[in-house]
Amino acid sequence: MTTYLQPIIKPEAVHTIRIRCFNRETDAKPHWQVYSVPYVRSMTVIQALEHLWDQNTYIAFRANCREMTCGSCAMLINGKPQLACMTLLENESKVEPLSQYPVLRDLIVDTSSVEQKYRDLKLWPERQRGAQMGSVSSDVLEAYQQTYSRCIECHCCLESCPQSDAETTQFDGPMFMLQMARIGSHPLDTENRSLQAIKRGAFSCVNCYECAAVCPVDLNAAEEIGRLRGSALRRTFSVFFRRLLGRHSAAQ
User: What would the pLDDT profile of 6-62 be if each residue is shown by its tens digit?
Assistant: First the structure.
């Protein structure tokens, strides 16, 4: 998505970029630092950061676009969670780290809480011993191709969601709900992922669709949350009516 910015010989202008910096070893608290960069049309935020590195200004940031780990350069740009490699540089752009996680240095945050949630939720197919792989419906295949396999786990939806909190389990947030829907549709998974989603706060979603608005690959996690909630309700009513009919038959 981004190519390395070659030395700028004829800049069209000079833009300023404000970066929220923090070094645990030398700084008591985060502070804003202003830098000037030569600007050319189509220049992205990540290219501006790379240019600063070329000038021996070492702002710490993650960017693994050329290492097949898309999504690692998510940060707050002018107050909005975005991928730095897809966001054009504006004059006086404000760049800061994602706010839901502890800052390790400059624009790099500690996402170990996300890794722990993945382990807690067991976001891999849980199958019973001896379970066999059955046929996969065309709807499931389409869901994987169009939605589940396209999530790059950039955390932009978590940052924008007014209900999610990286430090609690009140509502795990859109990205995790999408992953629960993905695993739940796997033909070998035997866990009740809709019930899991309810326990992890699916009904806390207020359908604001902020997650869809900021998703860099145009996914709509809110729709998947709605499907999980609907599936849980159908299962609940199904169990209720089966028990009710069972009691009615026994009474006769």
Answer: 567 788 899 999 999 999 889 999 999 999 999 998 899 999 999 999 999 999 999
Q: How far apart are CA 168 and CA 117, in angstroms?
A: 10
**What is 112-249's CATH number?**
1.10.1060.10
Domain edges within the chain: 13-109, 112-249
What pTM does this model have? 0.84
3-state secondary structure of 147: coil
* CB of 20 closer than 8 Å to CB of 48: no
Strands (E), 22-157: 31-39, 74-77, 80-83, 93-96, 103-105, 108-109
CATH class of 13-109: alpha beta
Burial of 63: CB neighbours in 10 Å, binned 0-12, 13-18, 19+: buried
| Both tokens assigned to 251 | 């009474």
- Cβ atoms of 69 and 57 within 8 Å: the answer is no
pLDDT digits (tens, 9 = 90+) for 152-211: 999 999 999 999 876 566 899 999 999 999 998 888 888 899 999 999 999 999 999 999
Q: Say if residue 213 is exposed, middle or buried (CB neighbours under 10 Å; 0-12, 13-18, 19+).
A: middle
- Cβ 192 vs Cβ 235: under 8 Å: yes
Largest Cα span, the chain: 90
